[in-house]
Write a structure and sequence with these properties.
The complex is a heterodimer of chains A (about 220) and B (about 130). Chain A contains eight helices and no strands. Chain B has a five-stranded parallel beta sheet with strand order 2-1-3-4-5, sandwiched between helices. Chain B has a single domain, classed as Response regulator (Rossmann fold, 3-Layer(aba) Sandwich), CATH 3.40.50.2300. Helices cover about 45% and strands about 15% of the residues of chain B. Classes of the chains: A mainly alpha (about 220), B alpha/beta (about 130). Chains A and B meet through helix 3 and helix 7 of A and helix 1, helix 4 and strand 5 of B.
């Protein structure tokens, strides 16, 4: 109801009250009841205000804390600095190992193809090539340092994300399987196992029925169940 | 029957270094006629234009894996009899079983040595 209409109704009611006998006990009861209702409504709306205020204050504090925690996560530093640097380190590792492998294989192939008819020349040639192989193996030191930097970066990011998830009480959401996930599953693309092959060559040989295999027929049958 | 050392061998791997290693090992074993391909699709195209006496393939390649290549080869009447050895770092039991079921002749897990490669080729083609 619009406010002017409410005011008009109140005025009309007051005029009507002026015209009645104030000593009428029924009127006194009605006024008493109205007063009680007014007090109850005031208490209700007062409580509602305090609850709402409390909720809003909690939300405000949560947003402020989230902002602080996101800032502590330093997402821009991770996105613009640490991940690109780690990516560049990995690229350098791939290039360096490829280059070293190439040098080592060149030297080995040259030795394999060398003419051994002149023993002195052959010995000098092989020695030179062996030195090239030793020099190329220095890649292990450099790539080891680069790998260390990448591992440090991953640890750093892991610590920050772990802290953020813990402080904010974040739980992992369900993720949908991507096309790449599906391809890897369908084509059984597991990649190399950590700590060596999961099934040893001897066990594979046994599956192909070769001598020296360690698996008996029952074990093989179990694999195919 | 004696092994035909002049029969062409197709080496399939997306890493040139691995192709080079296998080429060198094959050369030491007496196989000089070696072609290569960088994935299953390239290998399949080569196999449709040339008859190979042996295929040595990696598993994990893009766009076509060695496993898909194996299934394509075994599903093709012309290519079906081609001896096929998988040389891969995929060493889970499910991989070996899947390859065996798809008709692979032998399976070598990386890293491997010359002796293993020779033994597996001999078990597929016969002693040489």
């Amino acid at each position: 109801m619009p406010a002017p209409e409410v005011a008009s109704r109140v005025r009309e009611t007051l005029s009507a009250i002026k015209g009645v006998d104030l000593k009428d006990p029924r009127l006194g009861e009605v006024l008493n009841l109205a007063s009680q209702m007014s007090d109850a409504m005031q208490a209700f709306f007062g409580g509602l205000d305090r609850t709402l205020y409390g909720e809003l204050r909690y939300i405000s504090a949560y947003i402020a804390r989230t902002r602080t925690e996101i800032a502590a996560l330093r997402p821009n530093d991770i996105k613009d600095g640490r991940i690109p640097t780690a990516g560049a380190e990995l690229d350098a590792i791939v290039k360096h190992t490829a280059s070293a492998t190439h040098t080592i294989m060149e030297a080995a192939e040259a030795v394999m193809a060398a003419d051994p008819s002149d023993p002195n020349a052959y010995q000098a040639f092989v020695s030179d090539k062996m030195m090239e192989i030793f020099e190329a193996c220095s890649f292990q030191d450099i790539t080891g340092q680069r790998v260390r930097k990448v591992v440090d970066t991953l640890n750093h990011i892991e610590e920050r994300i772990h802290r953020f998830a813990e402080v904010m009480g974040v739980e992992d959401a369900e993720v949908q399987e991507t096309e790449e996930d599906k391809r890897r599953k369908d084509l059984i693309l597991n990649g190399p196992s950590l700590n060596g092959p999961e099934v040893a060559q001897d066990d594979i040989d046994a599956m192909f029925g070769e001598a020296g295999g360690a698996m008996d027929q029952d074990a093989l049958d179990a694999l195919f169940d | 029957m004696a092994v035909d050392m002049n029969a062409p061998v197709l080496v399939v791997d997306d890493y040139q270094t691995m192709i080079r290693i296998i080429r060198n090992l094959l050369k030491q074993l007496g196989f000089e006629n070696v072609d290569d391909a960088a994935d299953g699709r390239e290998a399949l195209a080569k196999m449709k234009t040339k008859k190979y006496g042996l295929v040595i393939s990696d598993w994990n390649m893009e766009p076509m894996t060695g496993y898909e290549l194996l299934r394509e080869v075994r599903a093709d009447e012309q290519l079906k009899p081609t001896p096929f050895i998988m040389v891969t770092a995929e060493s889970k039991t499910e991989n070996v079983i899947a390859a065996k079921k798809a008709g692979v002749n032998n399976y070598i897990v990386k890293p491997f040595n010359a002796q293993t490669l020779k033994a597996k080729i001999a078990s597929v083609l016969g002693d040489f």
